[in-house]
Known about the structure:
By secondary structure, the protein is mainly alpha-helical. About 65% of the residues lie in helices and about 5% in strands. Strands 1-2 form a two-stranded antiparallel sheet. Helix 3 runs parallel beside helix 8. The longest helix is centred in the middle third of the chain and has 31 residues, at about 130-160. It is globular.
Amino acid sequence: MGEAEDRSRGRGHNIVPTSSSTLTKESTVADYDHHPPESSSPPPSFSTILRMLSLGLLSASPTLLLIRFGARTSLPHVCIYIGLLLVPPLCARKCDVQSGIMRWILGFVLLIVTSSFKSGFLLASCDGMVMKGVLYAITALWECSNVVLIIGGKDLLRRYNIDRDGPSDIVLLALAPCQVKFIPRENDTNGIDNNLCSLSSGRSGRRFVHITTCLLGASGLYFALVSFQTIRTVVTSFVLIELEILVLMSSMAVVILDIPSHLWQVIHDLLASTSWFAPSYSVHQLSTTTPKVILPYGWIYTSKSTREFWSRWSRPAMQLIRHLFYYPLGGRDRWYLSIPIMFLINASSHFDLSYALVGDRAEVY
């Protein structure tokens, strides 16, 4: 979802998968619906699935450890939450539900069940407001990334080049705390996958510089405002300057939510090239593709339009909201209905979250 999605429901769904085929969009969708592609290799063995599960868990270990100790929850609760996260992608692969209404209901129910368990058990013991807010945001992005695969159906799976016949990539997808797109592997003459060495290729390096720069910038700006009375006086004396500083700090601070996704990609790339996990990539779809995470937040400060802003802001959540409310209500064709309702529901959910985090702090004058 790096590029902005089409606002129209129809154009947002007919997307050509990543392949060397020269078929048009219409023929590709029709061929997939009536003649599902046959797997070119036998299904992965149980040991391969187990290795992919281990790879996904190890890649997500920093996030899982943060949930375990940051929320001070029990290990069984974490295990149950992992199981709930695995259900939506597996349902998206196994359940060939043609009805969009049934997919909507199934996805909505799974979202309610997962988020209710998170609020009632997983994060119930977390007392710190900041830590609780961060954990709520990280887990919400994770849940949105997985649940939307059911509602979007096979068209959305095709968009991310996900093989509906192979469980290996689904397991990796479910255990990534963000959106994942499978891209073609680039093997050199020695058979080494260049995508699994993303640190040397520069992609992870650039992401690391971006995240570090934003966090240091936000910390430095906050320190300057708190420590120096002169700077604080100048900033608060002019409303426009104060608002601009707040927007800049928010744009840099929100990048902290990209860290779990970035760590997942780095750990995955390092482990996938080892002798233990590399053989698992020689079977099924994983022999030709490798997962690439899509960071939940881009650099929103330089957005030149509202469309560009929403394409960079909370990408998993925005995609889920579009599939839950915007498209079913008519999308761009009935914008006067779909957009107000979508923002009303989004604002209501954020109000409920804020109330759950900080309670009622209204002051009586």
